[in-house]
Write a structure and sequence with these properties.
The complex is a heterodimer of chains A (600) and B (129).
Chain A: H1 2-34, H2 37-47, E1 48-53, E2 60-61, E3 69-81, H3 83-88, H4 92-103, H5 107-114, E4 122-128, H6 130-139, E5 144-153, H7 161-164, H8 176-180, H9 182-185, E6 190-196, E7 202-211, E8 218-221, H10 225-241, E9 246-253, E10 259-265, H11 278-281, H12 284-287, H13 297-307, E11 315-317, E12 322-325, E13 328-331, E14 338-340, H14 341-347, H15 350-360, H16 362-371, H17 400-404, H18 414-425, E15 430-431, E16 436-440, E17 446-449, E18 454-456, H19 461-472, E19 492-502, E20 505-519, E21 526-533, H20 541-559, H21 568-582
Parallel strand pairs in A: 2-8
Antiparallel strand pairs in A: 1-6, 2-3, 3-4, 3-5, 6-7, 8-16, 9-10, 9-21, 11-14, 12-13, 15-18, 16-17, 19-20, 20-21
Chain B: H1 17-71, H2 74-83, E1 97-98, E2 105-106, E3 125-126
Antiparallel strand pairs in B: 1-2
The chains are: A alpha+beta (600), B mainly alpha (129).
Amino acid sequence: MTDQRTKWRFVISMIALILAMACLGTRLAFLHLGLKEKMREGFEKSRSLEKNIHPGRGIICDCKGEGNILAINLFVKDVCADPSVVLKSNMLVRVASLLSEKLDLPVDEVAVRLNQPDKRFAYIKRLVKQETVTELEKHKLAGIFLQDTTARYYPHGSFMCHILGFVNYDGVGSAGVEQGMDKYLKGSPGSLETLVDARRQELYDQRFRYIPPLEGANVVLTVDQNLQYIVEKALDEAMVEHHAKGAWVIVERVRTGEILAMASRPAYDLNEFTSADDNVKLNRAIGMVYEPGSTFKPVTISAALNEGTVSPENVFDCENGAWMYKNRVLKDYHPYGNLTVADGVKKSSNILTAKVALTLGEKRMRQYLCAFGIGSKTGLDMPGEETGILRPLSGWSGISATRIAIGQGVAVTALQMVNMISAIANDGYLMRPYIVSQVLRSNGTVLINTKPEVLSRPISSETAAIMRKLLLRVTEDGGTGRKARVEGYEVAGKTGTAQKPVDGGYSSTAYTASFLGFLPADDPEIAMVIVIDEPQPIHLGGTVAAPIFSKIANQAVRCLDIPPVRNNRLTDRKAVIAVSQNSVPTRKWHTDEEGIKGGF
Amino acid sequence: MIRRNRKKRMHGFVLPAPFTGVVVAGSLFALSYIWLGCRCDSLGRDIKALEIEKSQLKKEILNEESRWTKMKSPSNIEMILAKHNIVMTWPRQDQIIRLSEAGPYLSAPYKKTDHSLTYVKREKVVIHD
């Protein structure tokens, strides 16, 4: 009896179980197969999540590496609103006034954004810092929510603004290194495809596909933050002191072409780049061409010395300050009689330099200008560089050679000028300037490691040595650049005071004062160009720009630890040149049809 | 009539051994599957939590780095020095001791070397025009 009962119980239980399983199976089949395609897709969609993962943008730092960060990505919030919810809650006035107070926005502006009954989304303020939103979150306002986002942040504000550039709201580098190195800095996005739970939280074990984002690489500059600060401070003071329209400076290491500092005024705050106009955003050091005036004379003199058409002790008649050539008068600032070439450089005689240019001839002169990089981009690894203006020989008039020789009728960038003087300081080797030292992934993989690169050799080492001595005399007693001296160091350089071209002539009131030099003169380490645009009331390069050179160089030698005499520096230079000569040049000089011949 | 062995006689309903084996094995398999599934879920949640924590820490690091960079910027240091009336000057050359492989040595006092050229004016005047 008991056995029978047990047997039946078991059979009934099994039947019940099978029935239950069959019902569940039917329901399952119905859910999976019986629904319409659209409904099934809807269910699947609600359970799945597909999203792109944006990579973090790489940082930019100075030559010291990650210790000195200049640009960084910060995680911030966008404050957003669902206007329909805010309006339904009848809290418009309270919400608007609270948001206005916390986000520092005008109340009426916030109210207008919220008062849109048909809209379900509106930005109240973008890129708000975490500290600010923390206070806002405490109020738990209906219809107000936060979205995570990243923002490019420049901790130093306007510092190095023209070098760094900025990133627009779409995350694209739009100026300076941010633009030039954008493809490395931005990284590449990843993607995620996964199932989510009812709260839209990702189910980690249900990931179908996960491609991690490739974080942006970090860019290490050649610029020294401390030196850059010294330069910018000196420029700010100069702008105030000389009531200048603009000012710019470049400091370059002569042996390698590394840009150690580059500053331009006026400047702007990188975190508020939208409020700056294009004129302020212009990096004048590389993007503005000007007539160099007397700072251009070293090109002419070194070309003539290199060709042997003159020697330092040759004497020229300086016509007592006014020389009529092809019915046009060329004047000197001070009248001179006979001057040697060496004294002509020291006194900055226009007439002597023009006569030296004539010994060279137009064709050879232009070839040398091209070899020194005038009229072509230097190849700096940063956007915004101008070519300058050097007309072809066919465009030269009868007096062009005499005017170009003294820096008129030719337009250059400060970068071309500092590169030219660096070539004279560097035994005649013209180096490609560069501002990006390395590009590194966060795991240490080196993507770019810039090496010094020789572009050309316009003059021989003997000519360069003579030129260094001639330019050294400019800062000695009786020279125009006395105020550029640095205690304990010998400075070589050239002053420049150029009238600005206006309406086919030259202005009698607007000048460009400049100083171009390097130090230590016997074994140069750094070269520098100072340009002051329209200084008032004094406009002489020797009075306006030379003291700025002195002020910067005085601190730069200590900052860069350049001793007055260092025996191993010559050995170092030879080593650098040997390395860079083996490197493959990335560009060729555009020259006349005959190209650069031997001797350059 | 031979009497049946009462000892060996089976009482009640007994599940067949193979069936029992299959049920037990199936149950064990199902339990293992559920246990492994639970472990996967749990690990997934842990990993997800760690991922979130990592991302949060990354954010905090970047924010702190940004603050630190700002604090030790030359302009900020200069401002703080000025605030505390501290004046800093660069060392003179004779105050610097340089260390080299050959050992430390004091910078020699600066002597102006006579590199300047003295050019004698010659009578020959170059005329070009």
